[in-house]
Amino acid sequence: CSNKIDDKATEYFAQALKVNNTLSYISLRRNKIGDQGAENLARMIPFNRNLMTLNLRYNDIGNRGASYLVKALMLNSSLIRLNLMYNQNTTSDADWNGMKYEKLEANDKKRKKLFLAILNSDKKNSWKCSTLAVTGLPRAGKSSTVRSLLNKSFNELWSPTEGMKISECEVSKSNCWKHCRENENKYSSRFAMRILIQDKQYCAYPVAIPSNDTESDSGLIGGSERHTSISTSVADKDLEMNSETAAESSKQTQEPASGEDDINEHRPTIIDKENDTQLTKLLGNFDEDEYMNVKRQVDGHHFRIMDRGGQSTSDSTRNISTHSTPAGMYLLIFDLRQFRDQDTEAMRSVSVLLKSIKSCAPAARILLVGTFMADINQEKELSLVNKAITQLLNADHNNSQIVHNTDEQLSFFPIDNKGSLGIPNVRKKIERIVHKDKSLRKQVSMKWIALLDLILSKKSDSVSYLSFLEVKDLAKAHVEINCSVELEEALKLFHNRGMISYVTSTEAVKGLVILDPQWLLDSISKIVRHDGFLYDFNRNEIDNIGLADDLRMLSEKALVSRDFLEYVWDKGEVDFLLDYLKITMFLSEWNVHKGDESWFLIPCLLRNTYEKKIDGLKCIFDFSKGFLSSEIFHRLTCLIVSYCSEYRSKYGDVAECLVDFNPELYRNFASIACVPGFQFQLLYDSDLNRIIAFIENKTFAARTLHVIQAMLLKAKSDTVIMGAGTGWEILLENDITSDLIGYVSDRR
């Protein structure tokens, strides 16, 4: 606007707009466009199928120019706003004005009708949505990196993230990252709009071109291909039609578009009528502003950015395993200064996190991102860091998931969040990876996305999960998904894209659909923590309600009472969360002491380390070729405690007379007696990446081996806990020579 554009300039505008398929809004207000300029612009209107708004206010257009524009409007199906106010046409023909508003309204109704038709269909399109998980070392700047990616200012006082924080982000074709609130997302409406914009069947739905031909079909444009073949002379001739012909054209354009009836014929009943208020509001009305946003970002991408907090490396590995997706992308954040200073603990922690990601997310791409770049003063120091990272990566032969910084010839991406240094390079690399990800091109049904909105609509302060049967009823009633196999495929897709948590590894968890993964991880993080770190509870409040002794037991013995859990969690959520933590082996029931109150063991909260010598033959479970974390050892401890507790419950007082059921538990060691002579003694050797079982009574050697092997296989079957890539070898100690022999070769 206000560019002194005259009639001559509009010729070039018109020629360009005839073939333009991206612009949806054009403002030429406050220029010098007269009747001839209006006529020039009118000649492009029948050809353009994307323009929605044409603003010509404050020009010099008279009645003649206005009539040309309105006549051309009769040949267009996309324009819904044509602003001619404050021109010279103050005495414009009322009939033309009426026709203009009638046609604009008809176009608007047609688009909304098509939108609802698509929303109710099973049309397919690619769903450009994926996860971007941010994990890393404590205090390395994980949350600050997320803020930088989202164009938020650096905050010196930002508190460390507890659990997980999910952010929604739209990345447009112009490399603009826009943070959006979760409640702004109507996935169904945006998905339907993308189909409306991208599918030629809808973006160029047919309009009637009045002509002097006797055959009524000769003027129909069936799509963009036929549209481009219309000659300018035909359009010129059409613009000379009289008002009666134009009015007839307006009536023809209101007839159903070809293909619309095909959609309606077999559509499921998501929305039965255009004004079905409840579901229309749920799945999304046709909003013009949102439609414009979708048009601008039609080739963009939607990210669910998961900022996985952690006060320790163990916390970070727990967050990875609790809610991981097999694909997506990971940013592993580390402090460049620690690698510059050859901090061996930091290097070991990065190695552990890398193995954890590879184990739990074998198809994910991983970017190593080093923070505090401004504190790395010389290129020599950067080279030193790169050498350390390269050596760390070379120690693991499988580095196919690692994304290298080819632009700077580094194995990592150096950034500084305070000055936003290096952030554009990280964004660019992420966008390149997404663009090449073939899995994101998979065609997804409209009714699947409608189901997602229906599922998420059930989320509230009192509802955090649904049973599989509840979801099945929703799918059957509203989107006509009657097949359980199809429903499971849809839920797996939603899980992989970070929308819900749907774990299928065990039958017990398989029946649950977690509506808010952030709620789940936040709830777990209040109780399940690592390396002895407790959640920052309000000690005064706990004293006042009489739970001080319970907190002491949690801190000193890693034992939590049900009363304390009912204080930490909402009372209505305790049973579900307890079941979930038992199933995922984060805790086990503690039946060592009799009493009315229920207690539970959380092994990851054990603080002390066992350092004494242990007697007995060794049975070694060697994870040196795979991945072993303290988490796996703690899960194994839970399983053994449960195994022995069940034995005690089964045999009651008889068992209690036979053996002392008071386990000896440490961060790295567990000694638990089951029956006389049958005692589990397990040591976690983090340096050599192995678990050692010490067997004092040879009579129970085979039984001990088989029980531990079965428990590890049970944990492995849950890919969320150990990852599909986790494996181990079994080595048995010869009681005569003390040599270690492979279990398979000695099995006979």
Automatic annotation (TrEMBL):
Gene3D superfamilies noted in UniProt: P-loop containing nucleotide triphosphate hydrolases, Ribonuclease Inhibitor
UniProt cross-references to Pfam families, sorted A to Z: LRR_6 (PF13516)
Naturally occurring in which organism (per UniProt): Aplanochytrium stocchinoi
Name of the molecule in the record: C-terminal of Roc (COR) domain-containing protein
Annotated coiled-coil segments of the chain: none
Domain of life (superkingdom): Eukaryota
Phylogenetic lineage: Eukaryota, Sar, Stramenopiles, Bigyra, Labyrinthulomycetes
Biased composition (Polar residues): 242-256
Compositional bias ranges of the Basic and acidic residues kind: 264-274
SUPFAM superfamilies, per database record: P-loop containing nucleoside triphosphate hydrolases, RNI-like
Residue ranges, annotated region (Disordered): 214-274
UniProt-listed InterPro entries: Leu-rich_rpt, LRR-containing, LRR_dom_sf, P-loop_NTPase
